[in-house]
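cache lookup: miss for this entity combination. No prior model stored, computing from scratch. Input as submitted by user K.M.:
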Amino acid sequence: MNWMAAFFVIAGGFFSLVAAIGVLRMPDLYTRMHAATKAGAFGAALVLVGAALHFGSLRTVVVAAATIVFFYLTAPVAAQVLARAAYRRQLPTWGDGRIDEIREPRDFVEESRGPKSEPGEE
Amino acid sequence: MSFEGEINVLGVGLAVGGGLYLISIAIAMVRIVRGPSSFDRVVAFDLLSGLTLGIMVLLGLGFGQPVLLDAALAIAVAGFLGTVAFARYLERGGSR
């Protein structure tokens, strides 16, 4: 069982390193978020699986499973909230970014821009 | 497999995994120091909370303390709430 725990710990560390390198090297916010959310959550889940295998008691397995489920439920929510905030603040994207599927409902961006959105236009 | 008992396999795994985690934390710190925007820093902070969770689990493995898994769960909750709070604040117009 020690072999399995060691394998899972090293694999989790590897995926966390991949996530960190992605956060450092990716060109803009949205791609960085893509690296951090997916690879980071996977690395944490692998380490937790290793801990659950090593301890093996029912309580430990339940706590580790709860943490994994919680992490996998909340990481996409946090990333989505952050990406929506960045989009509303019109953070620049990398490249020309021709496909923009949120652009259609025009007031999505409009709402948070506040007093700068030329109110006398219409 | 034949020399089980002479080599602490879990100890080696913890050393390698802990080293990888420390390198990851250093790299995420670099992104926090030079993120062009606050959003980049929040993303790096989100990753750091996950890395801290992993470090806490590694400490629990090393010391043989399963209680530290509960601390890992608490860190997950705190990291999620912090990220959402930062995102809401930045969405309503903090410094970009």
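stored under new cache key. Residues 37-88 of chain B form one domain.
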